[in-house]
Amino acid sequence: MILKTLFHWLYKKIYTYNVFIPEENDYDDEIQDPTIVLRHQRYASRLYIVLLAVFFYILFSTILMNPQSRTSIVSSVNLEVYNQLYFEHNETLSCPCSQMTIIYRDFVSSSIQLHPVCKSTFVTQPWINALYFPNASIYGVADFRTTANAQV
Questions:
Q1: Of 2, 37, 72, 115, which has the most beta carbons under 10 Å away?
Q2: CB contact at 8 A, 50 and 74
Q3: CB neighbours (10 Å) of residue 41?
Q4: What is the pLDDT of residue 5?
Q5: What's residue 98's pLDDT?
C-alpha cells in the first residue's frame, strides 16, 4: 500500500512539475487562458528536462570514454604483415627498428669518383694567362676573353 501511494505521489509531482512559473511582473498585458498557459509551461518543462538529461548523458559518455592505447610488439614482420597493420592502424603505427632485416649492400651500391680540382683545365697556367690577355678587346664583346680580366 505504501509503495502504491509513493508511486502515485511521484506521478503527481512529475505531472504537475513546472520550471517556467512566471513571477508576478512577468505576465503579459494580454489576457490569456491560464489553463492553456499552464499546460504549455508544463510541456516546456518536460521538454527541457528531457533535453537536459540527453545533454548530460552525451557529455558524460564522451568524457568517460577515454580511448585506451595499447602497445603491441610484433616480431618477424614481413611486407604483408606490415601492410595489414598499416591498413588497420595507420595513424598510430610506429616501427622503431633496432635491427635491420636486409643488409644495405644488398640493395644499395655506391661508386665514388673524385675529380681533383688541381687537375682541372681551369687552374692550369695557360688558362690563367688567358685571363690576363693584353689584347682581349680584339675578340669582341660576346667572347669570354674580353671580360675575363674584369671577372677575376
A1: 37
A2: no
A3: 16
A4: 92
A5: 63
Helix (H, G, I), strand (E, B) or coil at 97: coil
Q: What is the DSSP letter of 68?
A: P
> Residue type at 29?
D
pTM over 0.90: no
Average pLDDT, the chain: 79
Q: Which three cell numbers stand for residue 39?
A: 499546460
Overall average pLDDT of the 47-69 stretch = 88
Of 149, 113, 109, 118, the C-alpha closest to 133 is 149
- The amino acid sitting at 100 is M
- The b/e string for 46-58 (b: 16+ C-beta within 10 A; e otherwise) is eeeeeeeeeeeee
Confidence of residue 99 (pLDDT cuts 50, 70, 90): low
Distance CA 112, CA 119 (A): 17
Angle at 17 between CA 15 and CA 18, to 5 degrees: 130
CA diameter of the chain: 129
